[in-house]
Fold this sequence. Notes:
mainly beta
Amino acid sequence: MNAITSLFLIALLAAGLPAAQAGVLAGGTRVIYDEGLRERSLMLANTNPYPVVVQTWVDGGGGAPESAQAPFIVLPAVFRMQPGGLQGLRIIHIGEALPRDRESVFWLNLYEIPPLAGRKEPDPARVELAMNTQLKLFYRPAKLPLPPGQVAGKLTFDLRREGDAWFLVCRNPTPYHASFTTLGLSGDGRTLAAQQQMDMMTPPFSEKRYQLEEGALPNGARVSFRLVDDTGFPIPGEAPLAH
């Protein structure tokens, strides 16, 4: 691994990006594509001790290139990365009209395929795993009426009971997606967390329910959360329950 790659990986780890989840790491956990850009760039590093072939595409979250439908192309679409190698990606919006009053979200896929280690025939005793890493890609229109840093202060929450289950309802009146890493009720010196979902994100101008774990509701509870900012860092926040 050369010095440039080492410095790149140190920067990733300093940013809190998980190094063990995938062998090909991206220089960010999300991509913000501002309206008017000709393209966005993203750097990748292969931390595997072996070369890989990587296929890239943008879709709506399905994770299958043959069914991908999104107004973005990624170059190069297929490439080989040596151990410790770096590769730059170019993400280009191809001009399809998107809503102007809110963000649109897509998924950037990084599909890495390991080699057969020089074997002419697959070894049935060895499992060769391909891995698909998905990063959120946000298309952000120009002149939205609110800075993204003010999203946390605009969110409102209330409780809703359905049968024996309690749900925390998040209402997002902003033009941005609100992505949570954690969410729950805090009070009495304890926290009642919301159950983790595949996507802990409340879209713009909408509401979303998050089921709480089983347990008694804390007295005088307030909503506590960590909201992901544009750099991918979770920022702690707190809000009262609406009555």
